[in-house]
Specification:
15 helices, 14 strands, 3-stranded antiparallel beta sheet, alpha+beta
Length: about 450
């Protein structure tokens, strides 16, 4: 085959394995993130960034700003969702046609924000005290908007801490002997849908539950006036009398793990003796159920014990929960064990959104980055929570990135239309359309006149 008409060999890229192949690069016409268009539609249907517009405040005045505050926030959030977790990627993304389209405003016809503009936005504008407080509230308000479209019948809050390793001299970083590294200790609250209700960045040398009031109480306040059942789960780090009293006062049922001690073990001493007879080749499980009042508690509370005898083990495995749930012990234990989903949510955030990448020097700037990661994570989980086609039922957040967002797209611009020609590899046109319909079903019905 000869060369296409008008294409000479001189000055063109050629590949030796097949001289007919001619690579061309059209940065402003081709995108590798065509699936972001779906998330742009999800954002528009739920009005998520419109909420942010009412909370965040610009630090610069005047009308000569290249990009709006909301446009810059979209670029930060959508970029992280697509796997670009550093503002250094902004110089290239500024010319990406899909990124320009979802950012909106002047970016559509010109370009999105550069790395220096994004750096100032994240480390100066968003790092102010008022904007950091607004960002911390924003995830909860986004979740409220999602719940207004599909109201839940109950809410289950799971609280857990994590670790974000640090590198270099960063404000607030400290050695943590448990994890064996210099780190931060972020604190998270998730609901049963995997939505990140609220998070906070803490120094690396704090205890797991330190600062729980600042993270949990705003979430409790948001649900205070709603007619739904409320539940809370936490590990032994959250076995705090003030926390029990707060949850009881707000009408929450809770199950919180207790560390074993001699008093608790004495209550179930009869279960700690090896059962009579030949040990079976299966786990033997027994439950204890009693009231107990620790010295720091204001009243007696129900405690559930689970004692398991495993084949080949000389001693039983014993665990205790403090709870105000009225159900049978085995139901309560099963309910508590589902708390492990919170650890899975944290793992998803680390793997897909890389929210451990907190490389700024000041603690305030790294707090901003964590909140932006949280918004990107929630945007991805919101799409997972829609009525997606069956073939996507088992797609993880990472799968959404690699199979849905990473769709090759070519833009063709006309006077009255902007056409994105999307590749059909992991996602076909029919599947794309069904996802779009699932997003549109989230739109609130019109108010009758």
């Amino acid at each position: 085959m000869g060369h296409p008409k008008g294409a000479g060999e001189t000055g063109n890229i050629r590949l030796g394995f097949d001289r007919r192949v001619r690579p061309e690069f059209h940065g402003s016409k081709i995108s590798s993130d065509g699936g972001l268009l779906l998330f742009g539609e999800l954002d528009e249907v739920l009005g998520l960034h419109d909420i942010a517009g009412g909370l965040l405040r610009a630090t610069r005045t005047g009308h000569n700003r290249l990009h709006s505050l909301i446009g810059l926030l979209r670029q930060s959030v959508f970029g992280r969702l697509a796997g670009y977790d550093d503002v250094n990627d902004a110089d290239r993304l500024a010319f990406d046609p899909v990124m320009r389209q979802v950012v909106g405003g002047r970016a559509v016809d010109a370009k999105a924000a550069s790395a220096s503009q994004m750096g100032r936005f994240e480390t100066e504008v968003l790092a102010t005290t008022d904007n950091r407080a607004a960002l911390a509230d924003l995830s909860g308000q986004w979740i409220d908007r999602v719940h207004s479209a599909t109201p839940p019948k109950w809410v289950t809050l799971d609280m857990d801490s994590s670790v974000s390793p640090t590198h270099g001299v960063q404000e607030g970083t400290a050695w943590n002997g448990h994890f064996g590294c210099m780190c931060y200790r972020p604190l998270f609250v998730f609901n049963q849908f995997g939505h990140l209700e609220r998070c906070a960045l803490r120094p690396g040398n704090v205890r797991s539950a330190d600062g729980w009031e600042e993270v949990l109480k705003p979430v409790i306040a948001r649900y205070a006036e709603r007619h739904l059942m409320r539940f809370f789960r936490g590990d032994a780090a959250f076995a705090i009398p003030d926390l029990y009293e707060t949850l009881e006062a707000e009408g929450y049922f809770y199950a919180i793990r207790l560390r074993a001690n001699r008093v608790l073990q004495g209550k179930v001493a009869h279960l700690l003796k090896r059962p009579l007879g030949r040990p079976p080749n299966r786990v033997q499980r027994f439950y204890g159920d009693f009231d107990c009042q620790a010295a720091s508690w204001d009243k007696p509370r129900r405690v559930i014990a689970k004692v398991e005898w495993h084949p080949g083990e000389l001693s039983p495995r014993v665990g205790f929960l403090v709870t105000n749930l009225p159900m049978d012990p085995d139901w309560i234990i099963h309910f508590y064990n589902q708390r492990g989903t919170a650890e899975q949510h944290i793992k998803k955030g680390k793997q897909a959104i890389n929210w451990t990448r907190l490389s700024c020097k000041s603690m305030a700037q790294n707090e901003v980055r964590l909140q932006l990661h949280a918004l990107a994570y929630n945007l991805g989980v919101f799409l997972q929570g829609t009525d997606l086609p069956q073939e996507m039922a088992d797609w993880s957040l990472t799968s959404l990135q690699t199979r849905l967002i990473k769709i090759g797209a070519r833009v063709v611009r006309h006077a009255r239309a902007i056409t994105f020609q999307l590749a059909e590899v992991a996602v076909s046109g029919d599947l794309f359309n069904r996802i779009l319909k699932a997003i549109h079903r989230l739109r609130a019905p019109p108010v009758p006149t």
